Amino acid sequence: MAMAMAMKLRFLPSYEHRFMSTPPPSSKPWCFSPTKLMIKIKSQTQSLQFKASSKKNRRPENVDGEFFVDHTCIDCDTCRWMAPYEGGKEMGASLSASSMEVFTRVDGMSVVSKQPSCQDEHLKALQALLSCPTSSIHTEKPAHNILEVQKTFPIPIDVERIPGVYHCGYHSEKSYGAASYLIVHPEGNILIDSPRYTERLACNIENMGGARYMFLTHRDDVADHQKWSERLSCERILHSTEVEASTNNVETKLNGCGPWSLNDDIQIIHTPGHTEVLSQQLDSVAMLLELEFEWMIPGHGRKAVYKDVEEKNSSIKAFLAAKQHTGYF
After folding, report:
1. Which CATH architecture best describes the domain 50-86+99-149?
2. Which of 8, 72, 89, 298 could link 217 by a cystine bridge, Cβ 3.0 to 4.6 Å?
3. Is the pLDDT of residue 8 over 60?
4. Could you tell me the pTM of the whole model?
């Protein structure tokens, strides 16, 4: 399941972008994996348990200092990949305080394991704070530069290797913290899935040219799509098998197995993955062997960057072999 989710978005340099949606075939009923359903129930229980009494209670696992995480964390991993340690780590070497991650995972939730020690770390920690879907990250005192940090969204993924591709931030609890993206394109910008709606982010996106399309990869990550549609007047695209009551009014409903071309250099690829049928999940992953790309940028999880197509295919083949051996994702 996690791999299928991670495979939904792929971006290639020079506007050679391809997007993948993961609706199940119409002959198969929609089904959540037991693991994912269990996680959602757990997170709801945690939210109810701590909402009234400890919204800003500091988890004891946090180190002392400015930033901390409270008990409402849903372990979506957003802060941990948004504010990573970028330095090298030698196998077996102990980590100094300066080389530790700002956010790490302890007992199924994020904590602050090291306070930011430079301007860049502080910026990334505040970006993670604003992007946390449950507002579980706090500072002891209001950050004096929070308004300036808000202006940094959407955040460029890599201005040199994939210019024009941005991470929107402001993840939504409605989509369990899924990431959304903005592609700046000469024929009209494209939102990939829905971030949490905020006035500041809406203004920033409008200043970048707004959005002509909003491509919704699947039903789980639609979040505040209606608010964004009304604000940006963008055309929403969703596969027909993913349409529910809340998305019944999307402008374009895709049918069949595709692929579909959004314009000359953007293609939508159908990769069914939200299913408990292992063979179907593996078939969706195997489809990627036929495509040329070097970047995978997921809605859930961390991006993968390959030096070339050969490395990409080698990685995918190893993954397929491992999953065929274990018999589960």
Report:
1. 2-Layer Sandwich (3.30)
2. 8
3. no
4. 0.80
